[in-house]
Amino acid sequence: MIPAPAAPDRATTASHATPQSVYDVIVVGAGIAGLMAAAYCARGGARVCVLEANHQPGGLMAGIRRKGFYFDVGDQSFEQGNILFPLLKQLGVYDDLHFLRAWYRLKTPNIDVQIRTPDDLPGAFARAFPEHAAATHAFFGALNRDLDHLRPIFREDNNPLLQEGILSLAAVARLSGHIALNAPRLWRLLHTRGSTQAADFYAPGSEVYDF
Fold first, then answer.
1. Which pTM does this prediction carry?
2. Burial of 208: CB neighbours in 10 Å, binned 0-12, 13-18, 19+
3. Pairing of β 2-3 and β 104-107
4. CB atoms within 10 A of CB 145
5. 45 has a pLDDT exceeding 70
6. E strand or H helix at 179
7. What is the pLDDT of residues 66-120, one digit of tens each?
8. Torsion angles phi and psi, residue 108, rounded to 5
9. Burial class (CB in 10 A: 0-12, 13-18, 19+), 196
């Protein structure tokens, strides 16, 4: 938690934008997708109007203020993807931004751990349920192997949206190949409940399985 900055004067903020009578593009919603779309249209020379019902932009990336403190409650998993940061670089704004990595704390009657690396969570589970330590490491090991196979899908050079011309076509081919090669794995991950996967490693009804 950090102290909340002073709220902007809405009347002053609104006065900075003088509405035009004609626009080439109207973007409804100032979430991350709407802001990106508006930025690219404006970079291409279009007159752009962005409409947002909330008092602040950001959509699911935004935070909230409660009792004098600001809480970051938005999506915090995009840094491992292959789309947002490259787009910010294309728009020429990446170097003007300062990013802070978010750390997490998981606190339960069994576990109290700060999650900073991929090994923190399985290690905490193994310490909380020492009699199931081997099963825990096997369970997370299986998840990590799935992720290792899927990581090429998220590489920048495999994203056709970030390439042009023949490079875009080559990226489509590579991406399609990775998806086809890992289609069974993707299907299983997207259509299998976590409890079903856990049953391969823990006895259903045990404390660690229920957790």
1. 0.62
2. buried
3. unpaired
4. 11
5. yes
6. helix 166-181
7. 898 877 777 666 666 678 888 888 889 889 988 877 777 888 888 898 888 878 8
8. -140, 175
9. exposed
